[in-house]
Amino acid sequence: MGDHYDSRMKRAPGILPVIAVDRRAQPPLHRQIYEGYRDAIVAGRLRPGQRLPSTRALAAELRISRIPALIAFEQLLAEGYCECRVGAGSFVARSLPAPPSREGPARARPRPGPRPVSDASDFLLGRTPGPWVGRTGPFRASESAADFFPFPAWARIVARHCRNPSRRLLRYGGPLGLEPFREEIAAYLRTARGVHCDAAQVMVVSGSQQALHIAARVLLEPQSAVWVEEPGYPGARDVLRLAGARLLPVPVDEDGLDIRTGIARHGRARAVYVTPSHQYPLGVTMSASRRLQLLEWARRSGAWILEDDYDSEYRYESPPIAALQGLDRDARVVYIGTFSKVLFPALRIGYLVVPPDLVPRFAAVRDAMDIFPPALFQAALGDFIAAGHFARHLRRTRQLYRERRSVLVEALRKELGDSLEVLGEQAGVHLVARLKVRRSDREVVLEAARQGVWTMPLSSCYLGRPTSQGLVLGYGGSNASAIPAAVRRLRDVLEPRRES
Question: Read out DSSP for 460-492?
Fold first, then answer.
C-alpha cells in the first residue's frame, strides 16, 4: 500500500499546501514558510515521496518575493526534510519515518452520530474480488491486444486536438455527445452491424455499464421484472439491481436465450437484457427463430429489449452476425455497444442507440447524471475512424485473435481433452472450458492463480445455483507463444497426478 501511494504521489504535480504567512508577524517570511512545510511534513499531511511546488509557483501563490521561498527550501533541504532531483523538482524526503498516529491510547474517540445510507447497494458489500480481477496475463477475460493498437497515429490525432482545440471541445456540450463523432458511429453501425439509426439516436457513454444505468433509469420502475441470461454478465446484473429491478434468470442453450421458458415464468416482464450476437459467457449466437420470438414477445407485451453487442466485431468462422436491433420494426430495442474490446478498455467510450421517441428522456437523464461526455477523445476517435485507422486496426486484430484462438483451442484439446469441453470458440476474445471432471471451478481458479494463470469461474456468471462448472478463458491479451505453457500449467492444476 505504501509503495503504491508513494509512486502515485511522486507522479502528482506539486500541490500547494495551506500555509499562512503574515507580513506583519515577527518571524520573517522565510521562517514562516519553512515552519509551515516542516510542520506539514512531520504531521503527515505531506508524505514521503510527495512532490513539492516550485519556489516560483509558491511565491506567486503567496504573493511574495521568490527569495523567502528559496531560503525556506534551502533550509528544508539542509535539515533533510526534502530532497532535490535533477530535472524533476523537490520532493518530501523518502528517508523520513512514517508520521505517528494521531490517536493516543488514553484519548477517547467521540461516538459517531447517525449515518443513514441507502440499502440499495448492500448486495455489493462484502464481496472479495477474485484473483481474476485486475490481473493481466493468460487468460485474463476481457483483455485486448493493447500492444497492437496504432498509438503513433492515435497520438498524432490527440496531439493535434490538444495543440489547437476548437471551442466545442472546451465548453459545455450536449448530453448526447459530439455530433460529428455520433455521425461516424451511426455510419459504422449501419454498415457493419445492420443497425437502423442516425446520429440523432446515438448517445456517447463511458461504457456498457453507464449505458445500462441510463437505460434502467428511463425504462424501469422499482421492482420491475427483468429477464437476464442464465448464465450471464455479472456487471449487467449489478447495474440492474442497483436500479431496483427484480431479476428473473432465463436459461441459455445452444440457440441462445430460451424465450418460451422466459414467457412461461414471467410473460409480463418489463424488459430483457440479452447478448444475442455472442452470448456472455457461453459464446452461443441466438438463432433467427429465437430472435423473431423475442421481438414478437416484446411487441405483444410492451417489453423493452436491452441488446448488448459488446464484441460482435470478432467472428472467425463466418461473417459478423447482424444486430437484433436491425430486425426490430416496433422500436423495442435499445442497442448498446462499446469500443473497449476493439481498441482498449481504458478509453472508456461506448454508445447507446435509442428509439427516436425516447431520445428526449435519455438526454434528460444523462444531463441530470453528468451533463455531457468528455469531448477530447470523442473528437480524436471520430477522426481516427474517418481516417481509416479503426477499420485497419479491426482487420489486423481479427487476424491476430483468430491465431490466438486457434492456438488456445489446439492446446486445450491436446493437454486437457479428457477434462473439459470447449464452448464458444467461434467468436469474441474469450471461450468457455466446461469441466468434465468433478471439481469446483472456484477451487481450480484459485489454484491456477497461484500458478500465474488468471481465469474466471463460470459459476460466477450464474444468478441462481450453477448448473455447470467451467473456466472463462480470455485470449485477447495472451501472446500466442505463451499460450501452450499456460495451458500446461492449467493441466497440472486439473490433473495433478498426471506426468508432465
Answer: GG-SSS-S--EEEEE-TTS-GGGHHHHHHHHHH
